[in-house]
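thought: fold this chain, then report.
action: predict
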Amino acid sequence: MGILICRPIALNWDKTLKGHCGDTTSQEIASASINMVLDLSIVILPMPVLWGLQLPLRKKVWLSGVLSIGLWYVRTPVAKATTDLRPYLRVSPDTDRGFAAVFVR
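observation:
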C-alpha cells in the first residue's frame, strides 16, 4: 500500500504539508518482489494440470507456449524495478557485471 507510506496521507501529493514519509525505496522493492512472485506463480500454476491432460504432446507444447507468453508480462515489472532503482544500486568492483555484482546500498 504505497499511499500509506506518508503521514498524513495527503503528503503523498502535497509536499507543502508537515509530516514524514517512510522509506519509499524499501517499499518499492518489497512491492515489486511480491508482484513478481505472484505473477510467476500465476503463470506456473496451470502447467502441471496442463501436462496431466490427455492431449497429444504437440498440443501440450503449444498450449504451454501460449501460457508462457505471460512470462513477458512478468518481465515488465522486473525491467521497471531495475530502471527505477538504478540510482540505489552499485556494482561491486570485485566481479564482472552480473546478478551477483549488484548490491543494494
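thought: worth noting. The radius of gyration is 20 Å.
final: C-alpha cells above.
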